[in-house]
Amino acid sequence: PGPEWHLEATSxxxxxxxxxxxRAQAEGKHDGYVNAALxxxxxxxxxxxxxxxxxxxxxxxxxxLRLGLFLGGVGDVSQDxxxxxxxxxxxxxxxxxxxxxxxxxxxxxxxxxxxxxxxxEDELRLGFGLTDHLRVFGQVIAVNPxxxxxxxxxxxxxxxxx
Length: 162
Known about the structure:
The protein is built from no helices and 10 strands. It has 162 residues and is an all-beta fold. The protein has a 10-stranded antiparallel β-barrel with strand order 1-2-3-4-5-6-7-8-9-10. It is globular. The chain starts with a strand and ends with a strand.
């Protein structure tokens, strides 16, 4: 069989704003994946990246340990150049699944723009599979997109699996 596709949308309540996260991921049968993510907020700030990686446990059904690399950008739509500043780094995900209940911790770490601007993101997610193809989840996230202060928030989301 071909890759398994994951499409998800999450709305997050952050200090003074609400963000929207959109993600897509294609997972190979055993261990590889490619993904893309975009986060935007009403103030016009955005963060987007595309990545590749692999699961150290080869697509196990209960435990995931994923390592990946990403390339992307961060910016503000009020800037003259929509591209903003480039971002590059890596991510680590540790996940567990028991029946229809799943959860994961994801840490993204890299640089945005000049090398002195760190880009970090920590995500803790807990969810439930309504069907084999539809999942709902809640998550807590802390983000530091480069030169901005660390912000945190909580959100809910939905994921479709094809």
